[in-house]
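Sequence only, no structure available. Ideas?
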Amino acid sequence: MFKAVRLCALLVRLKPLHLPQYRRLKVGAYVAVKKYVEAENDYAVAVLRNLRARTDAVELEPDGRSVNLDEVLPAAEQWCGNVPEKVLLLLRHVVARVQQDTSETATLEDTRFAGFINAFVRSVPQLTDEQLSQALGTLAVLEDIKSIYEPNYLALWTALDAECLARVADWNVDRLLHFADQWYPLRLVKQGKFVHKAIWKISNRLRKLPPEQLVRTVFYINLTRVPVENMMDIEVNFRQNFDAFTIDDVAVLCMGFFKTETPVRDGELLERIYRKVTEEVGSVEDIALTAILKLLRYSSRIPSVASMRTLLDTLVPEVPRLSVQACLHVALLGSDIHVCHRDTLEPIVERFLQDVPALRLKDAERIAFVLAHGNVTLRQGREMVLLRSILADLPNRVPEIVQYPRCYIALLQFLALRNVYDPALVSTAFDRKFLQLAYSRNIGGAGREAVSLDAYIAICLAGAGYTGNRFPPDAFRLVCKLTQDYLPNPQYKLTKSDRMLLDIQATFEAVVKEQRACQILHLLPHYQRPDILFCRDAATGRVVPLPELSNTHEIRTRESVLGQRSGDSRLRLVALVVGSWNCYIRDDKRRTGGYAMKLEQLRKLQYETLEIPWYEWPVYSRDDMRRYLEAKLATLLSKRAPSRGMG
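Reply:
I predicted one. Tokens follow.
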């Protein structure tokens, strides 16, 4: 893999692109990729300990005894002998020396500490539980550890981890959680084996844990990012003891579910979480609110829409006090089930506009998704101001783009859904080396965002003279093949959308009294769902049969459908576009951004479009289907038909 420096040069020069009118990326001083501290986890620890900040209570010399390290270290193993107290005392002094001496030579990896490390590792099995706890606390004082795999540091923490692991069978839940608390400050919970084993042992009694122990256990499940087999037991305990949990406890429990990718399946529990956060929204901590919102978005389905809207209404006056992260998750709430809450989006967009450069690339990508997917228009077009500001700031984000190349491509795609783009930036995304950075050797494994962005170039920028890089054609066809639905076949199990397509096809043929008058086809292969295609003669208003067309996983132009007849101006290609429920914003009937772009691209390819929304289609009666479609087709199948899209 090439170095970031070479990629920066790639982002700046854009060699394949020779368009002087396009703004180039400029790289000034190195801009460090913004890194957010583990604020959620630290806050959760504070909740567990009823504190707002963690303070170390480790005394480096609790008994007042002094040790001359320069004299002791050369013979550390002999000095310590088999006396655990001496080993702990020397550990405190070694840690103090490393912490107090800021010179580069005074690190734990100093060869002078080798004898002490050997003595410590040898004595760990003789430590009492209390001494083991003290050793972990002392080690946690070390701050500037370059790598947890540096030999001396690795020897210390792995020896402690192995000993804790050996004692799991003898420790009860309180003791297990106490030592898990001791491991957290070292930031080694995921790398070590002890906490994983401790959680495995505790998981056998999740339903019976008292509230305080449940919260602590779920916190460590959150840290390991590995769900236990019986996560359902946590739900049961959570629901049964719900009134015993504070809003902060609820936040910690929500973290555990979200970080292990486990949705809450209990509808009653989900509603109680909604009610609690709605009631306490004015006082809930920023981080706690963010954690709860993440799980609510991940778990909520259609039955939760009413509670979701109530919560969003309550959040409107709270937006000014919330952090950007919290605001982002307020905006994202409901996006999975097509809920778009304009009253919260307006102040959130203003909040983001205050400092666009301070946003993480991922934050910019997520808010762009909300505004593009929701296809929402705010007062004075402020959503477009934000999207253009995000685009303009991208040249300043080279390190982030190098680190998160897929996020960059997705962001460009969401911006393009609102027709916000920069040809130079798009060309950068499709440079061969950048695609290798994003997808390694498996460019064909790219997501729909890559092919959708390429299709936007091919269709919407066809007349703009774009000459930059494109997504590889072979990879385009492969990604489209992998991401689009199969054409519906009555011999197999059908979804509601599949059944609707087949019903419309059959009804259409009954209306025009001609077999095979239309075809179900992927006209736009970068979209998941196919459409129904037929051809009409504008002069006579009659349907013109088309040859059998196969799926090529390429964009279907007029030429590729009609061949030599494409120059006949009387022939009009019509796409019957089925708008399933996920093509519209809930309770608004506004098209989503992706669906609106689909209709726009079909028209740019010279298709007439006839939209059939799911909420209009009569699903129960064949006669009603026929009457509905006859009314829809009335203007198209007449001699004086309009030449473009119909609603």
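Residues 69 and 93 are 8 Å apart (CA to CA).
Hope that gets you unstuck.
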